[in-house]
């Protein structure tokens, strides 16, 4: 574990519609924050959108998808590793029977008027976002998490029909949850959840964040470890890449 010279973070895991969202207020060293901010802006370079001028610049579409490999982000990588495993524990996972992998990590920079459209991450199991700046007011663009099932609607379709008997915008039947960016805030949620980012209304500053895609697999199998459960992918070390002609790239298939 990385030494913690700063106070323990404020950690909150709660359930919404009934999505489990983890919000962790980290307290980075100001020097670490400054280095990460400088790196994100340097990596963006002369690009200002994605490429739609109303869409924020996202590094994953511009070849910047492994910032966790850079030394400036070592502190953040350690925090995400710890908090992601705490999140799994809160959901009831046995950490001895799963392995967590960071698949990709990229910066997002939004200028005034820029946001990110509704989407989810089908390539991953767990999503995380860390905010490098923000004052918690939402001026720089809230993260919106959608409840596709509208779990509290009770009567399917009732909350979106005409002249409905449910208060419009009621927090337990809104179909989404909005979260305002705040410097140092780390958020974790299932990667299958649709989410979007509102356009920034802050004319004085950029909105900067780091996104993460994480994947769960079984531990590597061996003489003293059984085969992976049916619905959990084997450990990547035991995968076999196949060439276009059908031949294995290396090694042999083991029964």
How is this structure best described in words?
With 255 residues, the protein is of the alpha+beta class. The protein has helices at residues 30-44, 74-90; strands at residues 10-16, 19-25, 57-58, 99-110, 116-119, 126-131, 143-146, 176-179, 185-190, 195-197, 207-217. The strands form two sheets. The chain has a seven-stranded antiparallel β-sheet with strand order 1-2-9-6-11-4-3, covered by helices on one side. Strands 5-10-7-8 form a four-stranded antiparallel β-sheet, with no helix packed on it. Strand 1 (10-16) and strand 2 form a beta hairpin. The longest helix is centred in the first third of the chain and has 17 residues, at 74-90. The radius of gyration is 20 Å and the shape is globular. The relative contact order is 0.20.
Q: What are the SSEs and their pairings?
A:
Elements lengths: L9 E7 L2 E7 L4 H15 L12 E2 L15 H17 L8 E12 L5 E4 L6 E6 L11 E4 L29 E4 L5 E6 L4 E3 L9 E11 L38
Antiparallel strand pairs: 1-2, 2-9, 3-4, 4-11, 5-10, 6-9, 6-11, 7-8, 7-10
């Amino acid at each position: 574990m990385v030494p913690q010279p700063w106070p323990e973070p404020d950690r909150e895991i709660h359930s919404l519609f009934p999505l489990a969202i983890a919000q962790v207020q980290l307290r980075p060293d100001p020097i670490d924050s400054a280095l990460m901010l400088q790196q994100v802006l340097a990596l963006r370079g002369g690009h200002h959108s994605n490429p739609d001028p109303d869409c924020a610049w996202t590094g994953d579409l511009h070849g910047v998808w492994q910032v966790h490999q850079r030394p400036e982000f070592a502190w953040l990588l350690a925090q995400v590793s710890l908090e992601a495993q705490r999140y799994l524990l809160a959901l009831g996972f046995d950490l001895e029977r799963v392995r967590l992998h960071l698949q990709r990590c990229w910066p997002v920079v939004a200028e005034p008027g820029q946001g990110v459209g509704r989407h989810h991450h089908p390539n991953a199991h767990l999503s995380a976002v860390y905010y490098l700046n923000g004052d918690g007011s939402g001026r720089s663009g809230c993260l919106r998490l959608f409840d596709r099932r509208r779990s509290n609607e009770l009567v399917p379709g009732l909350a979106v029909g005409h002249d409905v008997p449910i208060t419009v915008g009621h927090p337990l039947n809104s179909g989404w949850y909005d979260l305002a960016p705040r410097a140092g805030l780390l958020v974790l949620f299932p990667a299958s959840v649709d989410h979007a980012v509102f356009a920034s209304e802050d004319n004085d500053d950029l909105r900067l964040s780091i996104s993460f895609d994480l994947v769960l697999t079984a531990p590597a199998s061996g003489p003293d470890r059984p085969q992976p459960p049916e619905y959990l992918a084997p450990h990547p070390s035991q995968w076999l890449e196949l060439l276009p002609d059908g031949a294995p790239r290396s090694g042999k298939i083991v029964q």
